[in-house]
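Thread: "does anyone have the structure for this chain?"

Original post by V.I.:
We have the sequence but no experimental structure in hand. Need at least a predicted one for the grant figures.
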Amino acid sequence: MYRVTFDEKDTIVRIDRELMNPETVSWFLDLVNLARALKDSRFADDREKMFARMLGFPTGVMLIRDPAFNKGTAFTEKEREILGLRGLLPPKVHTMEEQILRVLENVRRKPNDIEKYIFMISLQDRNKTLFYRIVTDYIEEMMPIIYTPTVGQACMEYGHIFRRPRGIFISAKDRGRMPGLLRNWPYKDIRIIVVTDGERILGLGDLGADGMGIPVGKLALYTACAGIHHALSLPITLDLGTENEDLLNDPLYIGLKQRRLRGAAYDDFVEEFFLAVEEVFPRALVQFEDFANINAFRLLEKYRERLCCFNDDIQGTAAATLAGIYSALRITGGRLQDQKFLFLGAGEAGLGAADLMVSALMASGLSANEAREHCWFVDSKGLVVKSRSELSGHKRRYAHDCEFIPDFPSAVEALQPTAIIGVSGKARMFTQPVLEAMARINERPLVFSLSNPTSNTECTAEEAYKWTEGRAIYTSGSPFEPVIYGGKKFVPAQGNNVYIFPGVGLGAIACRARQVTDEMFSVAAKTLASMISDADLEQGSLFPPLPRIREVSAAIATAVAEVAYARDLATVPRPDDLPAFIKSLMYDPKYKSYV
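Reply from O.Q.:
Generated one for you, tokens below.
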């Protein structure tokens, strides 16, 4: 990775170094050996320090303050001596395992989840390797802290708990200089970008620039759940203003205090952003996150064939939902074409899920119109039917020739669905009468309460089991503790997109796909459903346990890459052993020896 040129007196006259990922530090061992080979070994340590600085490797305080390289008290005696750390650290050398014990002890003593979130994000700012080791090994405990449901509260309080900037903020004032902003990012080989404009954060609405917590959290899950190295990822927030009056009046709000850009000005800004990404990070996959309905669908349609991109709220949620349906049908013994799905909420998540279900139904032999007859929607105004003239284009696809029904409970009674799917962001809409009706209509009703955070869930796990006499097949978007009902223990697994998007992203990156297609999300759903054991289903879990998430992501990545190769969308040759190649790309957070 570097070449050292000597003169006839063995004096170094030039050092050439190729561009390399700053996270890759194995070269330093060769550097130390080089220094030791010099004739005058009395000054070897000084020369090693000098070479480290010349090659851009941090030393001393700068090393401790660099979260990508810092190991804290785990630096060895030799590393402390050579890298100028002697005296800057306590004398005790700890193992990573001992450091993990310290972190867990501190996290678990925090009084609430937002304090735990602040502690873990602060750890990420100090020591990335330790942070990702803990999140990877304790994913069940850590995911609710670093992502849903706690990330919702963190975004709502973002300006008040702000410690240190993360990612790139591109504001409405940055027109004409976006490539320069992107080049300010220290890592140059970016393979995945998660971008939001903050207008529809979870079910919480317009949080503007405070929505940065979402792309930061998503990318942490990419690393923990799919092994995509954190140096390859970049969170971005497009700050185009906000309509949130509380934020506009908050002196601690971190974003622009102006109304949102709309219309042509918004579109021109987004177009400039994507041109900048194509120029600066041409190999990056872009994931849209938490854009409002008015922009999400049309931006995806506009860019999906031009760039390698996808919308997790539309496509990731769809695949997770479809996987849950496949799993539930293994319990009921039913067929997909015999189901009737009633969605509460007709936004990105619901319409995206219905579109993917229609694709799956068409694969079973139904026409597009026949397939859509299986999907029904209730929005804020009532049942989506053809007589409603105000429907948007995406809703009109699912507007049936049926009498208008004004509310969800009445729609359940009239349509008698086999499954209700909550994606409304409105809490407690699956009421006791609704769930009792579902249990009366179906022997095993499917109840998917997918809105998050927890405060927005349509019903809790306990309510679902209690009000259906333990017969509901339940999953949720936010985590719930196991429930004991009728002497049986139910363990509802969280139907979270985390089972889908990390694997899809890893697969697309591995084969350098030109596009991310709906077919890739279909195979992701089937792959995920195939990995659920009979024991999982027996206890009411429609998804594998989270500790298996890396295994799941590797399998989905392989399936996604297979689609890319089959459809001529991959831009690198297919490896002889694709599953092994995928696994070889997955970063395992461990300390490297620097000397």
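V.I.: this helps a lot. Residues 312-332 form the longest helix (21 residues).
O.Q.: and Residues 2-82 form one domain.
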